[in-house]
Design brief:
Length: 382
């Protein structure tokens, strides 16, 4: 088992601003700190070609993280010592890779304090000249939101993840051979945890992912999801240009609250108002609607959903649910999915069906980590 350093000492825990803030009390002037932060990120994460800013490229060979390379990058002496207190090494260890028959691969990571978290590499199903791959990352160990269809929610919240632990899910995933063949071009914060419950750390990770001198993702390629924590939606839009996905999963408050306790705090009317008030001009939102057989999949439910989203620039992703911990919430038939989608589209709602991936390796979020936690025996597969 590898020794892992604490994520608070990791370079990957800082976006450009927070790195500059780290340097100022350690002797750098504000101007030096700003310049040094940019050059440090470039040295650590972009390698020797700072002009090659294509997101999703396989990681270029990095410069060594030492006095010589920082001097070569014209980082002032006062900042060099402070920067070298931070480690560029990943603070997670990949302990298992579980490939699925549908092409998705679940990654199980161990944290410095022995906890287990998951990411999922999801290759696109469509044929494109350059295949696109999405990485689904976790933002917490466990989750306090207790959605009844979710394995992660069953175990409760253990702790928030640090920014570096979110970034390192990506850094390790993109170095895998399959990511070299089909580079990761989108990141979604839809793994274990409710990102809005750890919003500062998530937004710092988003900033670093979108930083031109670090990982250079376009903000439109990074999506943060929420279960519907309505009182943080305005702050989200004020602080980032990343995309927002909101999980609805039921067409009325009674059914929504039964499977998503957050509905008792923020009902659908409150959620609608929060989104409509905060959504910036020209932007749109993604609504997620997991379809459960016989629970929320009737054409009348599609009508109610269409009424809810009316007036909000959006797309609806309909997701036929994976089997999860709640036996009452089963997978709908293809016919029910088709009828639901047809009803939505007939009301003019932009709708996509997203097939859940990785059913055979623990298809509901947190299932793999949950299973390994129960077994307490991480299996090292590479
Ligand atoms: S679905 Fe998301 S918010 Fe709900 S319990 Fe699972 S991880 Fe938490």
């Amino acid at each position: 088992m590898k020794h892992l350093s604490h994520p608070s000492t990791s370079l990957a825990g800082h976006d450009r601003d927070s790195l500059a803030r780290w340097l100022v009390p350690r002797g750098a002037s504000e101007a030096e700190a700003a310049r040094a932060a940019t050059r440090a990120l470039c040295t650590a994460f972009r390698g020797p070609r700072p002009d090659a800013l294509d997101p999703g490229l396989p990681e270029p060979p990095r410069r060594a993280w030492d006095e010589t390379s920082l001097r070569a990058a014209s980082v002032p002496a006062r900042a060099r010592a402070a920067l070298l207190e931070l480690s560029p090494a990943p603070c997670l260890e990949l302990v298992e890779r579980a490939p699925s028959a549908d092409g998705a691969t679940r990654l199980l990571f161990r944290t410095w304090d022995g906890r287990l978290i998951e990411s999922v590499i999801i290759p696109a199903t469509t044929d494109r000249p350059r295949p696109r791959t999405t990485l689904c990352v976790s933002s917490q160990v466990g989750c306090a939101r207790a959605c009844s269809f979710c394995e992660t929610g069953v175990h409760g919240l253990e702790r928030h993840l640090h920014t570096a632990e979110m970034i390192d899910q990506y850094r390790i995933a993109r170095a895998l051979p399959q990511a070299a063949a089909a580079p990761i071009s989108s990141i979604v914060f839809m793994g274990m945890g409710e990102p809005f419950d750890n919003l500062d750390a998530v937004l710092c990770a988003v900033e670093l992912l979108c930083e031109p001198y670090a990982f250079a993702f376009a903000p439109s390629r990074v999506t943060v999801s929420t279960v519907g924590v309505a009182d943080k939606i305005a702050a989200f839009f004020a602080r980032t240009r990343a995309e927002l996905a909101v999980s609805l999963n039921a067409p009325d408050d009674a059914r929504r609250t039964r499977i998503m306790p957050v509905g008792a705090r923020f009902d659908l009317a409150t959620l609608h108002r929060a989104i409509a008030d905060a959504l910036p001009r020209g932007r749109r939102i993604l609504f997620q609607y997991a379809l459960f057989a016989g629970y929320n999949d009737a054409p009348a439910d599609a009508d109610s959903l269409a009424s809810f989203v009316q007036g909000i620039r959006c797309r609806v992703n309909v997701i036929p649910a994976n089997p999860g911990p709640d036996p009452a919430l089963g997978t709908p038939s293809d016919e029910r999915v088709d009828a639901f989608v047809a009803a939505l589209r007939s009301r003019g709602v932009r709708t996509l069906v997203r097939k859940p991936r990785g059913r055979d390796v623990g298809g509901a979020c947190g299932q793999l980590a949950g299973a390994r936690r129960l077994a307490s025996l991480p299996v090292v597969r590479g």
